[in-house]
From TrEMBL:
GO terms for molecular function: ATP binding; glutamate-cysteine ligase activity. Keywords: ATP-binding, Coiled coil, Ligase, Nucleotide-binding. It comes from Reticulibacter mediterranei. It comes from the Bacteria. Transmembrane segments: none annotated. This is Putative glutamate--cysteine ligase 2. It catalyses: L-cysteine + L-glutamate + ATP = gamma-L-glutamyl-L-cysteine + ADP + phosphate + H(+).
Amino acid sequence: MSVYSKALSFGVEEEYQIIDPVTHELAPDAESIIQEARLHLGNSVQAEIHLSQIEVATKVCYTLEQLRHELQRLRREVIAAAARRQKVVVAAGTHPFSHANKQLFTPKERYLELEQEYQHLAREQAIFGCHVHVGLGDRETALHVMNHARLWLAPLLALTANSPFWYGMDTGYASFRTEQWARWPLAGPPLHFSSLTEYEALIGALLKAGGIEDLTRLYWDIRLSERYPTIEIRIMDVCTTIEDTIMIAGLVRGLIHACVMLVLHKKEAPPVHQELLQLAHWRAARYGLNGELIDLYTMSTVPASHLIEKLLRFVRPSLEMHGDWEEISTLVYAMLCRGTGAVRQRAIYQHTGSLIEVARYLVAETARGTGYTEEERKTA
């Protein structure tokens, strides 16, 4: 039996905002909250570049139910730890109104070096993403999988677009986080590589030229992990609800498996130009599901829902093999009906006229499904 006829392992990293429950501004309390949360989570909770950010990582999972349990456990413990420090937690790609360049850096050598090197880019790094790892140990296979999967990153971004506000303004984007992140060197879609040799030659040249100090600074939207035997998709905004995270993680695993099948059947990925990939990603960031996206196989613009349907058709055999089709397809169609996180945030603002109400909504939605109650928060 082929290893690819068994369930691929997968896991999720989520970045959260720490917020003051009175002002609803970002709050620099990561160190104390991490210390508190590690009593239950160990190293599954980590610091990020700013003290108003925190990151969690699930264990290796094989089923959607395992992943759901992990996300519930991680969110519940982080929310509880924050409550004991009189703070709350939000999962969204940007904060509705706090100024990113007012955030304090985490006093660790790695982050202080990033500030020294990247200056204002690093100071404005108050953005929050979701990364999905899928187990794939053979790097040559993984590289060719990356060639195929990079053509499907834009619809993944469109489904998770969750950052419409920046500095108290509606940016007009569904994912303004994407535009902030795109300014970094070596961010965005990766190149098409003909072989692992070509890939390693580029990595060697980047290191030699001082373009990167280590491979963790290779910020592509999809990349081969240097720490784990995985392929990592990093393009998504962090999702506010656990169910939305389940949706995207299941889709990503299905996509990677479907691309593995193409590689095993000697199907070559079309070497689409970087400019077209960048334009596809920009349209997804700008419009989310409320406009036309670029189908990189036909080189035409199509309604977002049509491209999502095409993605579902492509990954359906892989989702069915993992036993995920019914749940993931249901979650995707629900997203198409109710709108992305960005749409939901805007609806709250249009109804209330208050970005503080948007923040309150995000706090409640982040905790939904964790079993953590408002009463527990008030008595923490």
